[in-house]
Amino acid sequence: MRLGAIFCIALFAAVLAELAFPTAPFVHATWWILAIAAVVLLGSIRVLRSLRKIPTRRRTTAAVLMLASMLVAGAAGFSNSLFAPDPRSIVAVPGAQVALPELGATLVFPDLDRVDARVVLARGGSTTPISCRRGLYVGATLLRCHERTVVAVAADTLSGAHLTVTQPTGSTFLSPVLLMQHTQEIAGFDLPFDSFAVPAVHRVVKVVLFTAAQAKLLRGGSEHRTVLFAVDDSLGRSLNDSLGLAANGARKRVADLLLQPRIHRFPAIVVLAVPSLPTLGLALLLAVAALALWLFGSRTGDPRAQVR
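Now predict its structure.
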């Protein structure tokens, strides 16, 4: 029975490892799946063989509960390793609402200017903020938050008239917030970039983001995070003075536009599959009950104990 308990502990350790490190390569490795199956099989055989040698009914019940605990925990870990989908990232503009059909819930992204900008999970009439430090476990899903850099842009004419910014290829057509999901290599740096259009004056603007350290190396750069604007007409033709560097929050004349970038940190969500928490809770409850019966089970009143 002690050996069966060791198998049970090893199995719980393996499943908890999947829970704690859902993106680790071993989680979906063939050897890991086979190892979980082997632990469940060997542990079950060991517990079944020990049943005939257990002197009391309560301890027999404890062994059966331990066997059930191993089977339940093993099923949670095995199914997660074998069938869980790959992680997916959800990047959205401020104020967006993104449905999660598998959870029957909706992710609500905060406004850009909020100091404590947290994504909220709305489900069944209740809302739960998602911490970027701890994440949020929901059933067999972990919602993990991480912050990304986005750029909010404003465009004006040289006379100061405000111009509407659109993103024909972006996730939200009328949003002035660029999500910077693409990268481009410039001067040996792999830099985030995005683009937007200014339909009123038939301009297309490409935006490249530099960190403060990278900006120091640029001619005319600053010690702050910097944006490079490149302005073309709607047919893709370059204009005079079509390139310009603008520090965070500074207005810059580029071609025939006044452009202003504001660089922000904004949360995104990664959806990860993990072993089912309700299933693990059941397995843990069975294990605790088995341990309690084994340690504190009395032989008093047990017919087999009286025979001995």
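The chain has six helices and 16 strands.
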